[in-house]
Specification:
By secondary structure, the protein is an alpha/beta fold. It contains nine helices and seven strands; from the N terminus they run βαβαβαβαβααβαααβ. The chain has helices spanning 13-24, 37-49, 64-77, 102-127, 145-148, 155-175, 194-197, 203-206, 219-230, and strands at 3-7, 27-33, 54-58, 83-86, 136-141, 180-187, 241-244. The chain has a seven-stranded parallel beta sheet, with helices on both faces. It starts with a strand and ends with a strand. Bound molecules: NADP nicotinamide-adenine-dinucleotide phosphate. NADP nicotinamide-adenine-dinucleotide phosphate binds next to α1, β2, α4 and α7.
C-alpha cells in the first residue's frame, strides 16, 4: 500500500530535506508551501526521481480554510494520509518582548502554533481508528529555543515552540490507543535560510562556538530523526521530544 506523507513548509530547509529522505524511504510526498512554487517544484522533482509520487499543495497553514482545502485536495487526489510533518515555521527579527508589536506576536503563534494544530487535527480525523482510519504518525518541529527561551532574540518564537512541545505530549496521549503516534523533533542551530529571514544570515555559523559539537547541524541531519519517528522502526515511540542540537 502507498504510504502518503504531507510535509508542511516542504519547499526548502528541513522540510525539503525531509521530503527527499522520506521519498528515498518509500513515502509518497505531498509538499506544502506558501510562496516559492519553483522551490517546491524542485523538491517534487527529487521525490519523483526517487521513484515516488509528489504533489504540490499551496496553502498558508495559519489560515484554517486553506488547511481544510489542502487536506480535501489530498483526500481527492491520493486518499488518506499516513504521515504528517508539521514543519512550516517562521522566526522574526531579534527583538525584546517590550519592543514587539501585537501583529508580530500574533503571526508567530498563528503560523507556528495554530497552523500545526489545524494540520494535526485534520490528520487525526483521517488517521485515527476512531474515525475509521488505519493509523499514522505525526512529527512536529519544535526548537531548542523552547528550552532556552531565546532572550533578546525571539522569546515569542521560543514560547510558540514550547506550546508545540506540550501539544505533542497531550495529543500523543489522547490518540495513543487509536493507532496514531505523535512526536516532536527539537532542532538546535541548523544551517537553513530561516536565519536570513530573521535578518541574521550568518547566525548558524556565528552561534557554532556555543554548540557543544562546535558546528551548526544540517537539514539532512534533522530529517533523519523526523523520518525515523515517522517510520515503523519507531512503533513504540510516542509523546517523545527528540533533541537534534549537537548537544545544545
Ligand atoms: P526555512 O528554511 O525558512 O523554511 C520554512 C518553510 O516553511 C518554507 O518551505 C516556507 O515556504 C514554509 N512556510 C513558511 N510559512 C508558511 C506558512 N504560513 N504556511 C505554509 N508554509 C510556510 O525553515 P527551516 O529552517 O527549514 O525550519 C523548518 C522548521 O524547523 C520550522 O518549524 C523551524 O521553526 C524549525 N527549526 C529550525 C531551526 C533552524 O535552525 N533552522 C531550529 C529549530 C527549529 P515558502 O518559502 O513557500 O513560504
Amino acid at each position: 500500500m502507498d504510504r502518503i506523507l504531507l510535509v508542511t513548509g516542504g519547499s526548502r530547509g528541513i522540510g525539503a530535506a525531509t521530503a527527499r529522505l522520506a521519498a528515498a524511504r518509500g513515502w509518497d510526498v505531498a509538499i506544502n508551501y506558501t510562496r516559492d512554487a519553483a522551490a517546491a517544484e524542485h523538491v517534487a522533482a527529487d521525490v519523483r526521481a526517487a521513484g515516488r509520487r509528489a504533489l504540490l499543495l499551496q496553502a498558508d497553514v495559519a489560515d484554517e480554510a486553506q488547511v481544510l482545502a489542502m487536506f480535501a485536495r489530498l483526500d481527492a487526489e491520493w486518499g488518506r494520509l499516513a504521515g504528517l510533518v508539521n514543519n512550516a515555521g517562521v522566526v522574526d527579527v531579534a527583538q525584546r518582548v517590550d519592543e514587539m508589536s501585537a501583529a508580530r506576536i500574533r503571526r508567530m503563534f498563528e503560523i507556528n502554533v495554530f497552523g500545526s494544530l489545524w494540520c494535526a487535527r485534520e490528520a487525526v480525523r483521517r488517521m485515527s481508528t476512531r474515525h475509521g482510519g488505519s493509523g499514522g504518525a505525526i512529527v512536529n518541529l519544535s526548537s531548542v529555543a523552547a528550552k532556552l527561551g531565546a532572550p533578546a532574540q525571539y522569546v515569542d518564537y521560543a514560547a510558540a515552540k514550547g506550546a508545540i512541545d506540550t501539544f505533542t505530549l497531550g495529543l500523543a496521549r489522547e490518540v495513543a490507543a487509536e493507532g496514531v503516534r505523535v512526536n516532536a523533533v527539537r532542532p538546535g542551530v541548523i544551517a537553513t535560510e530561516i536565519h536570513a529571514s530573521g535578518g541574521q544570515p550568518d547566525r548558524a555559523e556565528r552561534l557554532a562556538p556555543q554548540v557543544p559539537m562546535q558546528r551548526p547541524g544540517s537539514a539532512e541531519e534533522v530529517a533523519e530523526a523526523v523520518v525515523w519517528l515517522l517510520s515503523d522502526a519507531a512503533s513504540y515511540t510516542t509523546g517523545a521530544v527528540l533533541d537534534v542540537g549537537g548537544g545544545r
